[in-house]
Amino acid sequence: MTALFALASSLLWGLADFGGGLLTRRVPALTVVVVSQAIAAVVLGVTVVATGGWSEAGPRLWFAAAAGLVGPVGLICFYKALALGPMGVVSPLGTLGVAVPVGVGLVLGERPGPAQFAGIGVAVLGVALAGGPQLRGAPVQRRTILLTLVAAFGFGTVFALIAEASTTVTGLFLALFVQRVVNVVVGGAVLYTSVRRGAPALPAGGFPWASFPALAFVGLADVAANGTYAVAAGLGPVTVAAVLASLYPVVTALAARGFLSERLRAVQAAGAGLALVGTLLLATG
Length: 285
Prior knowledge:
- This protein is mainly α.
- Helix content is 76%, strand content 0%.
- The chain contains 12 helices and no strands.
- The chain starts with a helix and ends with a helix.
């Protein structure tokens, strides 16, 4: 069940990233983040009220709040890195964040078997290759590398924090709600600062109401991915759940191939294959 829920997380995160990437072609990236997360916060707020989730309030919510604080910072750094440097460098480096929850799991005493250790290595290599690493070309700015590593650390930290945010289903709804509220506050503050500096918050034609369903999908898919990951980490080893959930770049690449007819480079196809092998090793180890 750990593998099933973790793979569901990678599928949902991959589709959310794909949808978000399409939206940012028409709407500023920060606006996409803030609006999609706000929609998710509203839906989660209703869910918390309907399920009585407020009764689960406790110290663990600090993990959710911390995840909500770190997540937007990582995402903003990632977007800036993509703007400064080639995706073929930024995308594979961004996957290094999986080292954070894996490291936490090992520190807490988790010891995967030999097959699972091999699966972790193969899957992480496959995800990095699926990002289409740039193996030659002009040198990349140090700032781009630093921003990407900060983003990777942020993503990995969110993985580790959300796994500790709740132990019950209703508590998980509350934790995800708190995380999303903090996401909106942090993202909204950055968006406000950006607008004050002259950057546009909306496209020239005003708010893109036609894109509202897509914005809702991105926000809700991201929430669902966080939820299924928390369940996966609660059911089994965090080391396994984190690696399987980190396969989302493969999903994004395959979605681009299926919906946009983008051709996969040979290194990306090889990476997708390795990720599949790693998944099988982790699931059966």
